[in-house]
Amino acid sequence: MKKIIFSLFLAIGSISAAQALEGDAAAGKTKAATCAACHGATGISAIPNYPNLAGQNSAYIIKQLTDFKAGTRSDPLMSPMAANLSEQDMADVAAYFSGIPRSGEVVAATGDAPAGAAPVAGNVEIVASTPASAIYKGDVSAGKTKAATCAACHGADGNSLVPMYPSLAGQSANYIAKQLHDFKSGDRNDPVMAGMVAALSEEDMHDLAAFFAVQAPKAGTGEGSDLGKKLYFSGDAAKGITACIACHGVNGKGMQQAGFPAIAGQSKDYLKKQLATFRDGSRANDNNGIMRNIAIKLSDADIEEVTQYMSSLK
Ligand code: HEC
Ligand code: HEC
Ligand code: HEC
Q1: Is the CB–ligand 1 distance for residue 35 below 6 Å?
Q2: What are the structural domains of the chain?
């Protein structure tokens, strides 16, 4: 069996024998914290659309992750997850998941979180925050000049002082550029921003995105909420709500390259408005309905608590 898989790899040419990396299951467990939001803390998923990974063959897991990253297998949820993994990360998470029994029982019995439960928190982010300037081709100093018109609302350094205006400092450049695009095309609707972007060229958008992405964000000052924290970290399996941590990160810093926005440092008012508009569909610029599908399952109370928590993220 090993031989067959091995020769398949050679045929595909994605991994050569010389490069095959030893996976470290313990390192993999730490790195799998973000995966747990969808695939369960013990690799047994609580949500029917998400596959179980516990007990899966390690070589198969590595091949799938390699394919998601290369784009030969594509999925709106998994592709950005895999994009952030190095070959070593893949080997490590594969070693971790393949070593868990299919039932997930042994892990539960050792006192870890039960199958499908919250990822064990911990300060883990798979994404090594790549400096935005390295990801994006925008020109930071040109962006600074162009940002003069934005300062009145978003702050000179991208830290807004007015709750209804979002902060842009430290935001994913890819996300900022996409939003500017969407405001201009009308895919995202806001009368104020529509006026601001009307005259912007593609190059302006990239420069502005680069400038704001490298500004230092201010920490959130909200009060926090235990209920909101639970929803943020664990989602709600009964209601089919994916944990926010999967895409917005443990500390709310988002995923730069995937264009999953940072939500730390935003005001509660702004966050509430965005969730309400994703829920009623008046904000519909999220690819594949990635946020609308989540927001539609949130109650008013869920939105209240989760935004209270998000506004406290540092
Ligand atoms: C936001 C939800 C989500 C997160 C987070 C997530 N995945 Fe996935 N994963 C999915 C979905 C959905 C699929 C099924 C894709 C499809 O239908 O092709 C999948 C499929 C996979 C597969 C292929 C399984 C198979 O049987 O073919 C692997 C391997 C995998 N994920 C590993 C990971 C790893 C490792 C992480 C963490 C770095 C992760 N996933 C994070 C949603 C997620
Ligand atoms: C008069 C106030 C005002 C000015 C000036 C302004 N904006 Fe905005 N901006 C807003 C408001 C209000 C929103 C939130 C819209 C909403 O609620 O959906 C916003 C949203 C955004 C967003 C989306 C942020 C997110 O987290 O999704 C970006 C990006 C943005 N503005 C960039 C800019 C840039 C770049 C400029 C300068 C060229 C600019 N804005 C000028 C008021 C302003
Ligand atoms: C599978 C990935 C994913 C998950 C899980 C997820 N989000 Fe998002 N979220 C996104 C993406 C992508 C966007 C940006 C969409 C766009 O405009 O392009 C977004 C945008 C947002 C925004 C607007 C940010 C801004 O600056 O305007 C808020 C607020 C938000 N999400 C809250 C949540 C909450 C609360 C949860 C958990 C209940 C959650 N998200 C779970 C992917 C995700």
Answers
A1: yes
A2: 2-109 (1.10.760.10), 132-213 (1.10.760.10), 226-310 (1.10.760.10)
